[in-house]
Amino acid sequence: MSEFSVRRARTGDIPEIETLIAPLVESRVLLGKDRVVFYEAVQEFRVAEDADGRLIGCGALHVMWEDLGEVRTLAVADMWRGRGVGNAILESLEAEARDLGLSRLFCLTFETGFFGRNGFAEIAESIVSPDVYAELVRSPDEGVAEFLDLSRVKPNTLGNTRMLKQL
User: Fold this and answer.
1) Which listed site, 29, 44, 63, 71, has its alpha carbon 20 to 30 Å from 102?
2) How far apart are CA 126 and CA 43, in angstroms?
3) 25 and 32 in contact (C-beta within 8 Å)?
4) Given CA atoms 30, 130, 61, 144 in this order, what sign does their dihedral have?
């Protein structure tokens, strides 16, 4: 067996996902979410676990539009960073995106080096047409608001970089 494996998340993983991301939420690298939000989105998550079944990383793929998805909540336990866990989770999310018919992936991140090494490039301008923007702006999802760079989420996104990858 390899050092770790990546699989779809299960509802029983949610408390461990919360524990894993807690230090990143405290340091304001990731936004905190209510537990109910994680349960509602459990099907979007992939998790990495070590050979003993301990959760060591997570990440989610959120579909935003017919060709566009967002990588969310990508986190790896400190002792596992630099060992390919983040790359493996991202590869799994990208494969899922392709299976769903997506051709672009967005992320809002402080980790520009990691995402840059994985084919993401910084964007500044809007990457959707005005008619798609008009549809997306109706979404109650905070991540969509962050993607659209709406002023109401600016305090949450200060210092983050908007990045995009063509699949």
Assistant:
1) 29
2) 28
3) yes
4) positive
Query: Has this prediction a pTM greater than 0.85?
Result: yes
Q: What is the pLDDT of residues 76-107, one digit of tens each?
A: 999 999 999 999 999 999 999 999 999 999 99
- Which has the closest alpha carbon to 105: 87, 93, 117, 88? 93
Of 52-56, 67-71, 108-112, where does mean pLDDT reach its minimum? 108-112
Using one digit for the tens of pLDDT, what is the confidence trace for 140-158? Answer: 877 777 777 766 665 555 5
Give the H/E segment covering residue 112: helix 112-117
Closest CA to 148 of 65, 54, 32: 65
Contacts 24+ apart (CB under 8 A), 144-152: 144/64, 146/108, 147/64, 147/70, 147/106, 147/108
Query: In which residue are the tokens 């996902």 written?
Result: 17
Q: Can you list the positions of beta strands (E) in 15-141? A: 45-50, 55-65, 68-76, 104-109, 121-122
Rounded-to-integer distance, Cα 134 and Cα 132, Å: 5
Q: Please tell me the distance from the alpha carbon of residue 90 to that of residue 32, in angstroms, as a whole number.
A: 21
